[in-house]
Fold this sequence. Notes:
- By secondary structure, the protein is mostly beta strands.
- The protein is 15% helix and 43% strand.
- The chain is globular, with a radius of gyration of 19 Å.
- Residues 1-31 have low confidence and may be disordered.
Amino acid sequence: MRIIILLAGLLLGSASSLFAQVPASSLAPAPATLTGPQVVQRSIAYHDPQGRWPALRQRLHFTTTNATGKESRFEVELDNPGGYFCYISHPEGHEVIKAVVNGQEVLLLDGRADLTEAERKQYRLAPGIGNFMRNYYTYLYGLPMKLQDAGTQILADAAPKDLLGQTYTTARVNYEPAIGQDSWTFYFNPRTFALQAYQFYHNHTPSEGEYIMLQDEILVEGVRIPKQRKWYLNKDQSFLATDLLLRAEPLTTRRL
């Protein structure tokens, strides 16, 4: 599992060569005249034109495949207005739940909360992991809408940049110190403003962090959510994993 408050990329050489700034003249003129906050607002209008993300109640089905080819399946139950989150997986035939219910973290192994230290370590059920998973999935799958959250600092500059041979409109984002120390760059289609990639740096260091490439979309109650995310390390361009959103369905019943 990748750590979420930090993510990004290089693929051929240094960060400056992969994500090189390109002349504004190579882009359509409209994006080059926008500020970072304006770019983000246009992307939100593309992904969530009816403002439905805050009211979303869905069960999302995923697979994740790591660098060795091992595939895992899991589900995420989201009730955004109710503040409910539940991550459900079945490693080695066991049911593992990492959830937040009514503001309280719930960690269960086969329905049990009284876990040994060995079980907590084996199934990654240390205290705090439920809150972490909620923040992780609601942030990543709520982008770019989550860039409206308090403490988000969207820089004014929205310079076009080249990434893997494609030119994107970008927005750079920092967070207030109490939220995170990482710096992010978001890459948008210069015509539709669809979010297509993002990267983060730890402590503003280009060799640290990860980058994520997005592909395809699933329409979920009017919200365009990226279907595939591929993760890579900045420092050596190593492939980490692919997350695939298989399908979504209305959350009519909850696991907890």
